[in-house]
Amino acid sequence: MAIMDGYFGSYVVVVVLLLIGVGIFAGGLFANRMLRPDRPTPDKLTTYECGVDPVGEGWAQSQVRYYVFTYLYVVFAVDAVFLFPWATVFAAPGFGMTTLVEMFVFLAFIALGILYAWRKRVLAWT
Amino acid sequence: MAEVLDVAVRLIVIVVAFLLLPLIVGQMEHKAMAHMQSRLGPMYAGGFHGWAQLIADGVKFAQKEDVIPAAADRRVFAIAPAVALVPYLVVLVVIPVGPGLVGADVDAGLFFVLAVMGVGVLGAIMAGWASANKYSVLGGMRAAAQLMSYELPLVLAASSVAMAAGTLSLEGIAEQWRWWWLPWQAIGAVVFFVAGLAELRRPPFDMPIADSEIIMGTMTEYTGIRFALFMLAEYAGIVVLSALTAVLFLGGWQGPLLPGPVWTLIKVFVLAFVVIWVRVSFPRLREDQLQKLAWIGLVPLALLQLALTGVVKVLMA
Amino acid sequence: MTSETPGFWPPSGPEVVFLLLGVVALGSALLVVTTRQLVHAALWLVLCFGALAGCYLVLTAEFVAWVQVLIYVGAVVVLLLFGIMLTRAPIGRSADLDSGNRWAAVLVALATAGVLLSVVVAGFGAAYAPLDPGQGAAKPLGSSIFRTWVLPFEALSVLLLAALIGAIVISRTDIRGRE
Amino acid sequence: MHIVYPVVVSALLFSIGVYGVLARRNAILVLMSVELMLNAVNLNLVAFDVWLRDRLHGGQVLTLFVIVIAAAEIGLGLAIVLAVYRNRRSIDVDRLRDLAEGDAPEVSPQSEVSPGRVAVGEDADREAGS
């Protein structure tokens, strides 16, 4: 009975926990459904804007700065992905200083991107 | 059979910890914050120093009407709290509390934690967009931008520990930890903790729910049990962040005299207290200061820590 | 070699899981390309990527699976949602998501599927690979990246730098070239 | 694992992506369909890596590279889409025909504006001051 062992076993446990999590959520909502009153009125269902009637539709244009921050993150996240396999091997025999330098060259290139963003005042607001 | 039972016990412990520890942290927050502000905090519920306050709150939330605004996107609105909450539960499965005491031994544990916690950002965007409320959309955007910006120093600081230990398994990292990692990984620890605080959207990083600007941000339209689940996600997040910091940077179960799990719990609660302390002590940052802190402060520091870790490790080898 | 290849029936446990995840991935992918609600398309994409990450896990590509979650679910979809929020993100159906050449598109897609399916079934119908965990962990990947694939890895950094600067220049109107 | 399962899933996913690219008008939806096609390719790479037991892990490493390049591509693509939206108020790929040959119907730059919308870009800094 090796279902709970090894590679597949540990991910079975993870999936079971995920299902338990969904179960907790569903259980909370179910308890709520059993216990709560349900008397919707049009006033209750309007959008809340500090007590005054909502203006326009319920969607606000966001600004492009946020997009730049997100893209900065994406670029760095994809390079952080390589940091993890690197971290497990760089000190092993046969790698050493060369591998360290390789990663720092990689990081230095990306860091130029931050430097550029900073010089062009993308990171500042005003 | 014994194996299945063993796994079942582990899962039950994880679920109980997930439901109980956030309540204890919440109660601790009520009392600690009150005393720091020369108040008493909850005193009545349950008798002794209001110990049952949060249970009473929970019962109250469960009885409240579940109002979904007419303009909202009902389905997305309904499942957003689950997307915010469940990742924190799933993450707990790989956090070790003692040697061998872990829900599942995942080889890529550290990377697993970071990947799963990254999913939580979708919960904020979904809640913000589906509420059909301008303030919620603004809050959702702020939350998403903040989570993305601070995920990066978090990932970099975590990878510094992985470099030091040479493994991604959280159990392996805690096993390899030695006291001199404290000064060696100090920068990384601070970066990780601060970035984690920002990930939780706790004060002083609570721009996404800044009540004086955008009401309650993504949670403006949420009521009753769904709101309670968002709050549970926040406090579960404190527990997960504290536990991760303890395992990665403070040696997890390692410590003299007391058994391992007790040490883990002590470290978790000390860190949770620091989270609360920070909330009481610092004013909210402005949105642009927030982004600046991430990109000009934490990211370069994390890169510095990476360089330090790498050079020391290679010179030692 | 053929002596140890099991038949298609009964399917093994991992195969059943893989097929279920494949159905989820394909179903949500279909919803991505047919839904009439813009934001829902992005959310179905999340489900599709998640199911694909599950597929990688079953194929024992552990590290790639979590990279899929971290990058696609946690970053690329958020980027897409930002794109949607910055252009137009109404709640409810939009009429103008599909173009007039839907039926031509259906035809082309069916033709593609037919060609690809007949080729892969004819080509790999008998191929069998026993799953053996450990090959997709971070360590073997790391050692082969930093032993064999170092040059493409370094080239990637230049590509990412160029993409980053390009995106900044395009998205910020206040950055101009030299007059 | 019979290799035919992953390659069939991948072939179907790719076809769905093809349909999306051809049938969708909204540029962001087209980008999403492109992502579907790239993911189909990744699934193939991983499956063949497992099948051929590549000692250099060429398949999985290439998958990582593809994911990285896809992320860079989608970010740049969206930046272009946002720039188009800023100038044209529309990201409808059927109507962006400035470079078309012949006498394509001209779309006026302001045709898609609806009241109450704020432009992307520096006009949209309202929220920053809040």
UniProtKB/TrEMBL annotation, chain A:
It is a multi-pass membrane protein. It is found in: Cell membrane; Membrane. It catalyses: a quinone + NADH + 5 H(+)(in) = a quinol + NAD(+) + 4 H(+)(out). Its EC number is 7.1.1.-. It is an enzyme of class 7 (translocase). Signal peptide: none annotated. Keywords: Membrane, NAD, Quinone, Transmembrane, Transmembrane helix, Transport. GO terms for cellular component: NADH dehydrogenase complex; plasma membrane. One of its GO terms (molecular function) is NADH dehydrogenase (ubiquinone) activity. InterPro entries: NADH_UbQ/plastoQ_OxRdtase_su3, NDAH_ubi_oxred_su3_sf. NDH-1 shuttles electrons from NADH, via FMN and iron-sulfur (Fe-S) centers, to quinones in the respiratory chain. PANTHER family: NADH-UBIQUINONE OXIDOREDUCTASE CHAIN 3. This is NADH-quinone oxidoreductase subunit. It comes from Planotetraspora kaengkrachanensis.
Automatic annotation (TrEMBL), chain B:
NDH-1 shuttles electrons from NADH, via FMN and iron-sulfur (Fe-S) centers, to quinones in the respiratory chain. The immediate electron acceptor for the enzyme in this species is believed to be ubiquinone. Couples the redox reaction to proton translocation (for every two electrons transferred, four hydrogen ions are translocated across the cytoplasmic membrane), and thus conserves the redox energy in a proton gradient. This subunit may bind ubiquinone. One of its GO terms (biological process) is aerobic respiration. It is found in: Cell membrane; Membrane. Its EC number is 7.1.1.-. One of its GO terms (cellular component) is plasma membrane. It comes from the Bacteria. Belongs to the complex I subunit 1 family. InterPro entries: NADH_UbQ_OxRdtase_su1/FPO. This is NADH-quinone oxidoreductase subunit H. It catalyses: a quinone + NADH + 5 H(+)(in) = a quinol + NAD(+) + 4 H(+)(out). Keywords: Cell membrane, Membrane, NAD, Quinone, Translocase, Transmembrane, Transmembrane helix, Ubiquinone. GO terms for molecular function: NADH dehydrogenase activity; oxidoreductase activity, acting on NAD(P)H, quinone or similar compound as acceptor; quinone binding. It comes from Planotetraspora kaengkrachanensis. It is an enzyme of class 7 (translocase). The chain crosses the membrane at residues 7-26, 76-98, 110-132, 152-173, 179-198, 227-250, 262-282, 294-316. It is a multi-pass membrane protein. Its main location: membrane. NDH-1 is composed of 14 different subunits. Subunits NuoA, H, J, K, L, M, N constitute the membrane sector of the complex.
TrEMBL record, chain C:
It is found in: Cell membrane. The keyword NAD applies. It is a multi-pass membrane protein. Its EC number is 7.1.1.-. It comes from the Bacteria. The chain crosses the membrane at residues 16-34, 41-59, 65-91, 103-129, 149-170. GO terms for molecular function: NADH dehydrogenase (ubiquinone) activity; quinone binding. Keywords: Cell membrane, Membrane, NAD, Quinone, Transmembrane, Transmembrane helix. It catalyses: a quinone + NADH + 5 H(+)(in) = a quinol + NAD(+) + 4 H(+)(out). GO terms for cellular component: plasma membrane. The keyword Coiled coil does not apply. InterPro entries: NADH_UbQ/plastoQ_OxRdtase_su6 (IPR001457), Nuo/plastoQ_OxRdtase_6_NuoJ (IPR042106). Its main location: membrane. NDH-1 shuttles electrons from NADH, via FMN and iron-sulfur (Fe-S) centers, to quinones in the respiratory chain. Couples the redox reaction to proton translocation (for every two electrons transferred, four hydrogen ions are translocated across the cytoplasmic membrane), and thus conserves the redox energy in a proton gradient. PANTHER family: NADH-UBIQUINONE OXIDOREDUCTASE CHAIN 6. Belongs to the complex I subunit 6 family. This is NADH-quinone oxidoreductase subunit J. It comes from Planotetraspora kaengkrachanensis.
Automatic annotation (TrEMBL), chain D:
It is a multi-pass membrane protein. It is an enzyme of class 7 (translocase). The chain crosses the membrane at residues 6-22, 29-52, 64-85. Keywords: Cell membrane, Membrane, NAD, Quinone, Translocase, Transmembrane, Transmembrane helix, Transport. GO terms for cellular component: NADH dehydrogenase complex; plasma membrane. It catalyses: a quinone + NADH + 5 H(+)(in) = a quinol + NAD(+) + 4 H(+)(out). Its main location: membrane. InterPro entries: NADH_UbQ_OxRdtase_chain4L/K, NUOK/Mnh_C1-like. GO terms for molecular function: NADH dehydrogenase (quinone) (non-electrogenic) activity; quinone binding. One of its GO terms (biological process) is ATP synthesis coupled electron transport. Its EC number is 7.1.1.-. NDH-1 is composed of 14 different subunits. Subunits NuoA, H, J, K, L, M, N constitute the membrane sector of the complex. NDH-1 shuttles electrons from NADH, via FMN and iron-sulfur (Fe-S) centers, to quinones in the respiratory chain. The immediate electron acceptor for the enzyme in this species is believed to be a menaquinone. Couples the redox reaction to proton translocation (for every two electrons transferred, four hydrogen ions are translocated across the cytoplasmic membrane), and thus conserves the redox energy in a proton gradient. HAMAP family: NDH1_NuoK. This is NADH-quinone oxidoreductase subunit K. The lineage of its organism: Bacteria, Bacillati, Actinomycetota, Actinomycetes, Streptosporangiales. The gene is nuoK1.
